[in-house]
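Ops channel
N.P.: pipeline sanity check, posting one input/output pair.
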């Protein structure tokens, strides 16, 4: 009897993207209870129930940290949570209405009312502070700032908490930061390019897709893998060769194998298996990673390829293939 599902099947059945499932796992919010011998995520029925609980609570406006507390605290009171969310939402609406009123005053007053202009300048100063907590407070109050300005601040930010607040403000701004991010992809600093591609994978629109495709050729493995996986999460079949490269090179190969399984499920299994098998060579480590990727792909073509690898001259490859055949 089947007891676990891989990430691709969970994504298809739950509607939660593979990228988000990987993020939930990384932050310990909805981690799979099992791992295969090859390191692939295996979700139980209880794991999937928790994923649905996470999605339901996020829809109410809770942060990921608050979702974790709600699910893990046995004394958690839902009624109190709803009341607190209502108070928080009303306070946020009041702040935004107050900000809108002040901006209208600035626009109407011209050069005679500089107090409001100075408040905006103070906000910018907060974002540029050397103190991370000051930058975070400024970011959480910066929804009305332009998406371009927020994106530039995000590209310069190395504190994860501040970066999260800036992402939140950028999403709420409603502006398209793609132009700034495209420019950042040409920066000499790999850290800047990594931040840019991380925002691009969450940015909607065809321009973001084009930018991600250009980042696939980046010389930094982290930039390249993030771009490839971001395109895969959008269901881009043209990214299959790049995903196979990640598997062969051993760069984010587990995530790349899972992404190949998701794309293959849309009817491209035979083509993907053929392309994967072409990369088999003399390196046993590569063949083992390819076997692991084939284990993520459903259908007779992948099964046939695994059967051949079950007789591989390298015992590690053969054992891996036989294990994956037993899991099908």
């Amino acid at each position: 009897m089947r007891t676990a599902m891989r990430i691709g099947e969970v994504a298809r059945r739950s509607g939660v993207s593979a990228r988000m499932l990987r993020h939930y796992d990384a932050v310990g919010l909805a981690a799979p209870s099992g791992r295969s011998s090859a390191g692939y995520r295996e979700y139980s029925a209880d794991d999937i129930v928790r994923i649905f609980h996470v999605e339901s609570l996020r829809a109410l406006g809770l942060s990921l940290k608050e979702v974790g507390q709600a699910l893990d605290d046995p004394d958690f009171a839902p009624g109190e949570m709803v009341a607190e969310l209502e108070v928080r939402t009303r306070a946020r609406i009041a702040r935004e209405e107050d900000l809108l009123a002040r901006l209208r005053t600035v626009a109407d007053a011209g050069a005679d009312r500089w107090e409001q202009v100075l408040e905006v300048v103070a906000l910018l100063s907060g974002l540029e502070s050397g103190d991370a907590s000051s930058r975070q407070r400024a970011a959480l109050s910066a929804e009305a700032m332009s998406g371009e300005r927020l994106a530039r601040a995000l590209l310069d930010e190395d504190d994860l908490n501040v970066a999260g607040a800036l992402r939140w403000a950028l999403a709420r701004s409603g502006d398209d930061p793609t132009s700034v991010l495209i420019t950042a992809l040409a920066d000499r600093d790999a850290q800047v390019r990594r931040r840019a591609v991380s925002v691009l994978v969450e940015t909607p629109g065809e321009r973001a897709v084009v930018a991600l495709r250009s980042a696939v050729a980046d010389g930094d493995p982290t930039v390249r893998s993030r771009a490839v996986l971001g395109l895969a999460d959008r269901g881009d079949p043209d990214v299959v060769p790049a995903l196979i490269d990640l598997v062969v090179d051993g760069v984010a190969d587990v995530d790349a194998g899972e992404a190949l399984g998701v794309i293959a499920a849309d009817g491209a299994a035979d083509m993907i298996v053929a392309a994967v098998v072409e990369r088999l060579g003399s390196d046993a480590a590569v063949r083992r990673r390819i076997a692991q990727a084939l284990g993520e792909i459903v259908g007779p073509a992948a099964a046939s390829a695994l059967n051949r690898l079950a007789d591989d001259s390298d015992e590690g490859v053969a054992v891996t293939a036989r294990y994956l055949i037993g899991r099908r």
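N.P.: looks fine end to end. Strands lie at 5-6, 34-35, 41-43.
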